[in-house]
């Protein structure tokens, strides 16, 4: 096992990794920009190294600075968290060239899954069901027209390198196709340096269901059920739950087994998420994320496992600490993402937190790196905390969420907490009977067309 791990991240996820390390008796090194000198992850780690100015490109994304921090402190492994360098295959290669262990999948797997066209081809070959669409990339408008006619409108044009909801354009009819095609290519090129796009059938009423998988890198893999992340704004998740309200045990076992077998066959190591759209009882693969997800705590809650601990174990060459049979669903968990954002426009709301009180009690977990008097810097993601509740069933989890949101105090800045308080009053949220388009429509009606 490692003696010392460097955490190449910030905020709540850096703290999350520190906590796992502490329980495993592993020392941890925090890295931080000059804007994060007072950050909680810096205070909680055993050591901290400043790796650059506020701009992420010069700090949290600076590979030489992070590698140097490892060398200076003698850290043997790097946990990347999510975002930043967590899905950067070149970084993984460089880390390994320096004889440091990357806590995550291999560079090759990250490369395959990071390119959505290759990911889809790979998954199809592994027997995973995919959204109907183009066979690989679509090089020009003429081909796009042919494919779209064949697949049938509406279609969605997607940048192969896209992520975070960027580089995706809907064409409802043939008249929209040209502009959707050009915009998706342009967004792919400007945001991700790759203009290649592909086409998928646009599903009208799906849920977003994702399967958590975990591999040991030696051909053994398990699944940890699904998460339903259908409540989305601009293709970004805001509320996640496990198990999915629309998934029964038999469906879970079947799709879970397909996913576990697929990743076992490629000797996948560590945590991964296979994302699907789910409509009329059918699963359609959209992408695989080769990292720990923001919403991993809902899975941890219902299976009673620590996924970060598990990531560290397999990276150190140890066996997984559970088998498929050990993994039994227990109750229901919900997570809400608390962002420093001002409603109704979701505009960033950085600044000083004048008062903070975290909710507590049975089945409540608050993953956050904020504290009384902390100043949220304006340079990074607006996620400031995740409130996760666990109950014996969905109604209990919902009641616990409502109670916890009422206990939570974050003063001095605006947050998305009022959104969740309002959503919990909605019959659709209470029944769990929503699709990926529901929240956008709700925001339009209730917050005045700002969704
Ligand atoms: P990203 O990598 O940007 O997150 P994804 O491919 O994972 O992109 O898709 C994100 C979200 O976009 C999905 O959860 C869903 O809401 C929507 N989406 C993606 N593909 C389709 C599709 N074929 N039809 C309808 N909605 C889609």
CATH architecture of the largest domain: 2-Layer Sandwich
Q: Sketch the major β-sheet.
A: 8 strands, antiparallel
Radius of gyration: 21 Å
Structural class: alpha+beta
Number of helices: 15
Task: Give a structural overview.
- The protein is of the alpha+beta class and 451 residues long.
- It has three domains: 4-85, Rossmann fold, CATH 3.40.50.20; 132-201, ATP-grasp fold, A domain (Dna Ligase, domain 1, 2-Layer Sandwich), CATH 3.30.1490; 207-446, D-amino Acid Aminotransferase, Chain A, domain 1 (2-Layer Sandwich), CATH 3.30.470.20.
- The chain contains 15 helices and 22 strands.
- It has helices spanning 11-23, 40-44, 63-73, 89-97, 107-114, 116-125, 141-151, 174-192, 249-265, 296-303, 307-315, 394-407, 417-423, 427-431, 438-447, and strands at residues 4-7, 27-33, 47-52, 77-79, 101-102, 155-163, 166-171, 197-201, 207-216, 221-233, 236-242, 269-279, 282-289, 332-339, 341-342, 347-348, 351-352, 355-357, 364-368, 375-376, 383-391, 409-411.
- The strands form six sheets. An eight-stranded antiparallel beta sheet has the order 13-12-9-10-11-14-21-19, sandwiched between helices. It has a five-stranded parallel beta sheet with strand order 3-2-1-4-5, sandwiched between helices.
- α4 packs antiparallel against α5 and α7 (141-151) packs across α8.
- It is globular, with a radius of gyration of 21 Å.
- The mean pLDDT is 97.
- Bound molecules: adenosine-5'-diphosphate.
Question: Tags for this entry?
Answer:
single chain; 451 residues; alpha+beta; Rossmann fold; Dna Ligase, domain 1; D-amino Acid Aminotransferase, Chain A, domain 1; 3 domains; eight-stranded antiparallel β-sheet; five-stranded parallel β-sheet; 15 helices; 22 strands; globular; binds adenosine-5'-diphosphate
